[in-house]
Design a protein that fits this description.
About 25% of the residues lie in helices and about 35% in strands. The protein is built from five helices and 20 strands.
């Protein structure tokens, strides 16, 4: 008897595929679990790098406040030397550009015609004086004769009139002599003031006239010398108050027009007696000692008129001052090198320096460059910037402005010839 044969039917292909997918999924799940278990937790995100910025420490010092204007240098006195009589120019007593003294001979006009005129009127005076002497003697004789009734009263009166006429003639002659001597003196032309001569306007040999408009030479007094400059009419009260509050004249410093080099230090002389309504400005005059001739007539200069002093002012470079809808602020970097927005009050900005009246203390560090990268709480690394003295996390340069080194801009502005 044959044993029965058992036949195993193969699984359908669909079931086989599902089994394979299940196995793959289980393996993947086990692999992920193993990685999570043995790999540990993910690392925390790295901290952002510190932000580089130029830092400057606030300083405290006295600060001089000035008003700036543009002025023109003018001679203290200016004289056009002219001839006062007509004649031929014989010689000149100066050279062009020479410093002359008051009373020094400048030119000589041919004196011979005037010498002859003086001699003529002098002779006429001598003649009339002789006639007057004789007429007085005759009058004395007629006085004696009239007492003896040896002459008539008419003759005596005629002689008295003759004496009076000759006395008047002598006085006229004296006036003529004085006039002729004055005309002769005018032939020698002297300098009316001390100063510097300019270009020669007339050469020797020319005929000059008293009516000539050009003159012989112009003499300008350049030591001392003046500067006339203008300020807006709004500055009048500030200048006027400063003048009234100080016993000494206000200090004025003149600078080169195209640079910051000081030329001379002087003092305020006056404020013009009216404000120009057309330009809305007021003219101000200052005088300067000018032994080295650093200032020259006609020169344009920048002028600083110092009107106030702020003792113990807290100063930062003007680049540190930022503005927002809430007002002015600065990026303050503390001891932990973290930035924060610090509201500040600024009284004025001058020469690249901001005078801070509230919000900062001396020594506190503020950013003057790279502020656009900063945000509150950001870590800051100090870098060196142009004009800064050093760098590093501790800080900061002092003296971003050249005036900071001297303490007083007025003192640092004084040139050698103004001392």
């Amino acid at each position: 008897m044959k044993s029965p044969t058992v036949r195993i039917q193969a699984a359908p292909p669909r079931r086989r595929l599902l089994a394979i997918c299940a196995v793959v999924a289980i393996v993947a799940l086990l692999t992920w679990a193993a990685v999570r278990w043995f790999g540990g937790k993910e690392k925390a995100p790295a901290a952002p790098p510190p932000i580089q910025a130029t830092l400057v420490a606030a300083v405290q010092r006295d600060f001089a406040v000035y008003l700036a204007g543009v002025g023109t240098v003018q001679p203290n006195q200016s004289v056009t030397v002219k001839a006062r009589v007509d004649g031929q120019l014989q010689k000149l007593g100066y050279t062009e550009g020479q410093d002359v003294r008051a009373g020094q001979v400048i030119a000589q006009i041919d004196p011979r015609p005037f010498q002859a005129q003086l001699a003529q009127v002098t002779a006429t005076k001598a003649r009339d004086e002789a006639q007057l002497t004789n007429a007085r003697l005759d009058l004395a004789r007629y006085d004696e004769l009239i007492r003896e009734q040896a002459t008539s009263q008419q003759t005596l009166d005629t002689q008295k009139a003759q004496v009076a006429q000759l006395e008047a003639a002598v006085k006229t002659d004296e006036a003529q002599v004085s006039y002729a001597r004055t005309q002769l003196d005018y032939t020698t032309i002297t300098a009316p003031i001390s100063g510097r001569t300019g270009l020669r306007l007339v050469d020797v040999g020319n005929i000059v006239h008293a009516a000539d408009a050009t003159g012989l030479v112009v003499i300008d007094q350049v030591d001392p010398i003046n500067v006339v400059f203008t300020l807006p009419d709004a500055a009048f009260q500030q200048v006027n108050s400063a003048m009234r509050s100080r016993p000494e004249p206000l200090e004025v410093v003149a600078y080169e027009r195209d640079s910051d080099r000081p030329l001379a230090k002087g003092r305020l002389v006056l404020i013009d007696n009216h404000i120009d309504t057309t330009s809305g400005t007021v003219q101000i005059k200052a005088t300067f000692d000018n032994a080295t001739h650093a200032l020259w007539p006609g020169q344009y200069v920048n002028v600083h008129l110092y009107v106030a002093e702020r003792p113990g002012a807290v100063l930062v470079p003007s680049a540190a001052v930022q503005r927002s809808q809430r007002g002015t602020f600065a990026w303050l970097v503390g001891a932990d090198d973290k930035a924060q927005m610090q509201p500040i009050d600024v009284a004025l900005i001058q020469d690249g320096q901001a005078v801070v009246t509230k919000g900062l203390m001396p020594g506190q560090r503020v950013a003057v460059d790279g502020q656009y990268k900063l945000k509150p709480g950001a870590k800051v690394v100090a870098t060196s910037g142009p004009g800064q003295q050093g760098s590093g996390p501790t800080g900061a340069a002092v003296g971003a402005d050249p005036a900071a080194a001297s303490g007083n801009p007025a003192e640092k502005s004084a040139p050698e010839n103004a001392k």
